[in-house]
């Protein structure tokens, strides 16, 4: 594989390329697809980020929705300007996630998993029951200001790419190392003065804030949002992206998101077969290729492709 | 008063199904330490089988309804056991005790099976005719005999399970493995085999719930999914792995749903359950009857 | 000829010099109906190496978990550096300067040696440079400087033990609690480890509390020894005193001498 910095530069170039493509490609559909790819990549990467502390975070769908609704409310009901409405999304998502994390992350075992799933569904329930939020029909009218209209795809992609690079930076920092240590054996960091529960909450809040911002961007991209956009299935798809691409490296979920978003464009009209497809992919990835594409890449590099998978 | 009784009977009826469903889920967790997100698919499969067999048997073969139902019920259990065997053999046995891995597997299964069900069964809801017709009056409230039988059958199965878990050798193995798997293995208990039995029993319980549910609700391919959130709430409240907890939790949730749904509305009731869970997690993270993890 | 409890406490004091760093008073821990530790009192003095021994099931691990805050006592008091720490959690106590190692699961086995040690420096040192330097220094002290990039789980057993000590050292403790550090070490490794403990005490000024089964090592390195049996303090004193104590002999051999 590429050496650290070379890989990073390549990714930056790809991001810039995507932005240019969105700006100059002419057909707005292509720009939309690129934004979708980046949005799904953000969903997948934020899900994987919490995997660093060993927790499977279904609530990533919930906070994506909270971010989207926050921006929608700020923009259409409160009439706030574009960038303020956008920034409100991660702020609110972050605050709620801090509270949620404080309550749920101190439990061990599957409680976090189950509660984050229940939370996602309950929040959706709240959207459908709240007329101010449009109830079942959701909210409409989130448009970027006219002056920015042609540039919006570029802005969206820049923000989403910034989320991806930002999370990568955190993961590579000492904080990321501490998160991995917590997943490996949380008694060790605890025995040397680290506040394990506080750090778990921090990891969760970082991920939720990031995905909240992605939600805010989504609101402006789609111009309409509805509760049905934010079911737990969103997290399931994100999970599929992570498993296909591989959890070993941050590029994994990005690769998975890219492949499956583009494939998804063709699968859309297949009804139940779409579910079967995703289900089969997830099961196949889990049982046969647990490391995903990244894992395969590692094995090819190490020359052990034909050998038995570790772990 | 009559209203209260009616609501109580509703509670028992909804609760019966919840309890059976949650029992299966909590048993699987207790023994295998995994969360089976696809638990609802066993439930749905049983309901679909009952619905399909009933329509064939009654309309086509003209067999008496109660007899058809018995055949349907048995077939449902058998088929679910087969599905359970297959998914265990090809999947779950590789992710025992792996919380995230098993969760991912079960999500994949959920998608796969739900899609398959839709293709095989179609999207049209189908009801089955009353197995036992007629009403009965109980403490002033009216209730179909069918629903009464549902409650009774569910209660019998629940008691049967409780006896199995607490009075038989298999039950002892299940409990030993749930309590401390390594210690159980040191005593010669074959973990993998016990896990397999636990899984099958759990699936069968879900199947019973589904087959019973089919008698009172139109059957679609998604009826199992609606149960899942409530089932998670139930086993959290009752304590993961606790049989008694699943029973009490199931009844409590049914109570909230029944009374809350009447005096307020279903969504509010669901919200109230969620708030209850959150409060419980703050105060007592291991659930009402669960064990505290170290 | 039995010692009274107060005799044992004064034996606790007798040869101790320097101030008292850690003081336990009537520590008790019950698990349901089982009393793992009962009425356990002792003092740890600055600069000493105190050994804690006892047959299996005597309550040594529980005591360790109590002292380091991994489980709370059901009754009794604990104070560290003059402050009451009864019931405080592990993060709090380790930040005050009492750091422990673990007998099992003592490492971050999927991470490199360097990362294992850097984690321990994270709380006290804030700059990358300072952390790196402390990591190298500690690795050198424990003989791991050539293994920095090796995955901890693939180290030979003796070096894994050294790494678990390195992790604790890198957190700059005042008191180091070692949980059976010599388990699985052979011959030369034991001697090297004991030299390391002596270096930690005399050059780094760190006080050591040591749980161990290796009797010869304990007799060699410890200034004083506490003997636990069935959760209670059976005897306390210098190695010579303890090794001649009838109750201790009876506890270990199962019969009177």
Residue runs with pLDDT of under 50 for 5 or more positions of chain C = 9-16
Main sheet strand line-up of chain B: 1-2
Please tally the β strands of chain B and state the result.
Answer: 2
H/E element string of chain B?
Answer: HHHHEEHHHHHHH
Biggest interface goes to:
A-B, 40 and 40 residues
Structural domain count of chain B: 1
Which H/E pattern describes the elements of chain C? HEEEHEEHEHHHEHEHEEHH
Major beta sheet, strand line-up of chain C:
6-7-8-3-9-10
Q: Indicate the mean pLDDT of chain B.
A: 86
Q: How many helices of chain B?
A: 11
Strand content of chain C: 15-25%
Structural class of chain B: mainly alpha
How large is the count of helical segments of chain C? 10
The secondary-structure class of chain C comes to alpha/beta
Stretches with pLDDT under 50, minimum 5 residues of chain B: none
Taken from the alpha-carbon principal axes, the silhouette of chain B is globular
Helical content of chain C stands at 25-40%
First and last CA, distance of chain C: 13 Å
Give the DSSP E fraction of chain B (strand runs of 2 or more residues): under 5%
């Amino acid at each position: 594989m590429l050496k650290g910095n070379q890989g990073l530069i390549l990714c930056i170039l790809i991001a810039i390329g995507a932005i240019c493509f969105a700006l100059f490609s002419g057909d707005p559909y292509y720009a939309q697809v690129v934004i979708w790819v980046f949005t799904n990549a953000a969903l997948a990467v934020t899900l994987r980020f919490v995997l660093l502390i060993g927790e499977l975070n279904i609530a990533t769908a919930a906070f994506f929705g909270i971010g989207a609704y926050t921006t929608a409310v700020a923009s259409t009901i409160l009439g706030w300007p574009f960038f303020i409405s956008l920034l409100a999304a991660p702020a609110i998502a972050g605050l709620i996630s801090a509270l949620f994390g404080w309550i749920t992350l101190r439990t061990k075992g599957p409680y976090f998993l189950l509660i984050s799933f229940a939370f996602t569904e309950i929040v959706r329930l709240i959207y459908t029951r709240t007329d101010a939020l449009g109830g079942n029909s959701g909210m409409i009218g989130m448009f970027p200001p006219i002056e920015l209209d042609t540039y919006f795809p570029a802005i969206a992609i820049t923000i989403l790419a910034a989320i991806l690079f930002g999370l990568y930076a955190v993961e590579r920092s000492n904080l990321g190392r501490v998160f991995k240590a917590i997943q490996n054996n949380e008694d060790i960091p605890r025995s040397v003065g680290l506040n394990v529960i506080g750090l778990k909450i921090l990891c969760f809040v970082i991920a939720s804030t990031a995905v909240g911002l992605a939600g805010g961007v989504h609101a402006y991209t789609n111009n309409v949002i509805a509760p049905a956009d934010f079911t737990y299935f969103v997290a399931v798809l994100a999970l599929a992206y992570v498993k296909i691409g591989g959890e070993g490296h941050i590029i994994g979920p990005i690769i998975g998101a890219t492949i499956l978003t583009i494939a998804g464009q063709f699968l859309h009209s297949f009804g139940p077969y779409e579910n079967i497809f995703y289900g089969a992919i997830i099961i196949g990835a889990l049982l046969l290729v647990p490391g995903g594409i990244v894992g395969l890449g590692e094995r090819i590099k190490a020359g052990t492709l034909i050998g038995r998978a570790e772990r | 008063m009559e209203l209260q009784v009616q609501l109580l009977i509703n509670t028992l009826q909804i609760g019966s199904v919840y309890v059976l469903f949650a029992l299966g889920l909590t048993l699987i967790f207790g023994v295998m330490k995994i969360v089976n997100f696809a638990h609802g698919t066993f439930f749905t499969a049983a309901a679909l089988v009952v619905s399909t067999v009933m329509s064939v048997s009654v309309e086509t073969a003209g067999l008496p309804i109660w007899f058809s139902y018995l055949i349907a019920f048995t077939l449902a259990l058998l088929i679910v056991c087969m599905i359970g065997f297959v998914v265990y053999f090809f999947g779950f046995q590789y992710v025992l005790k792996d919380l995230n891995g098993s969760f991912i597997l079960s999500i994949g299964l959920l998608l796969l099976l739900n899609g398959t069900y839709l293709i095989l069964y179609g999207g049209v809801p189908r009801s089955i005719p009353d197995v036992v017709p007629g009403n009965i009056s109980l403490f002033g409230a009216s209730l179909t005999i069918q629903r009464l039988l549902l409650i009774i059958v569910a209660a019998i199965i629940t008691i049967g399970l409780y006896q199995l878990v607490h009075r038989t050798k298999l039950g002892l193995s299940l409990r030993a493995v749930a309590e401390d798997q390594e210690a159980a293995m040191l005593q010669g208990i074959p973990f993998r085999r016990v896990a397999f039995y636990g899984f099958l029993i759990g699936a069968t319980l879900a199947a019973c719930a589904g087959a019973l549910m089919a008698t009172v609700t139109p059957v679609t391919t998604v009826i199992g999914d609606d149960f899942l959130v409530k089932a998670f709430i139930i086993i959290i409240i009752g304590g993961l792995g606790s049989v008694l907890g699943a029973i009490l939790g199931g009844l409590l949730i049914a109570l909230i749903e029944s009374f809350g749904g009447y005096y307020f509305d279903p969504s509010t009731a669901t919200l109230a359950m969620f708030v209850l869970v959150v409060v419980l997690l703050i105060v007592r993270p291991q659930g009402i009857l669960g064990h505290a993890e170290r | 000829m039995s010692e009274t409890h107060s005799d044992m406490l004064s034996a606790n004091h007798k040869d101790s010099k320097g101030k008292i760093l850690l003081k336990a008073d009537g520590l008790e821990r019950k698990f349901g109906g089982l009393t793992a530790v009962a009425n356990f009192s002792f003092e740890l003095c600055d600069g000493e190496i105190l050994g804690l021994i006892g047959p299996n099931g005597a309550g040594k691990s529980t005591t360790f978990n109590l002292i380091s805050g991994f489980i709370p006592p059901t009754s009794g008091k604990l104070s560290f550096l003059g402050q009451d720490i009864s019931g405080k959690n592990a993060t709090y106590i380790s930040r005050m300067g009492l750091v422990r190692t673990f007998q099992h699961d003592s490492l971050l086995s999927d991470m490199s040696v360097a990362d294992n040690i850097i984690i321990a420096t994270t709380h006290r040192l804030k700059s990358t440079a300072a952390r790196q330097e402390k990591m190298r220094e500690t690795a050198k002290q424990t003989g791991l400087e050539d293994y920095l990039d090796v995955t901890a789980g693939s180290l030979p057993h003796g070096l894994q033990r050294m790494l678990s000590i390195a992790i604790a050292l890198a957190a700059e403790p005042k008191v180091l609690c070692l949980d059976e550090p010599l388990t699985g070490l052979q011959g030369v490794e034991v001697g090297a480890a004991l030299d390391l403990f002596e270096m930690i005490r005399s050059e780094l000024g760190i006080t050591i509390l040591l749980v161990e089964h290796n009797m010869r090592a304990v007799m060699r390195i410890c200034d004083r020894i506490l003997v636990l049996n069935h959760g209670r303090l059976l005897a306390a004193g210098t190695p010579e005193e303890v090794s001649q104590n009838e109750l201790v002999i009876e506890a270990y051999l199962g019969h009177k001498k």
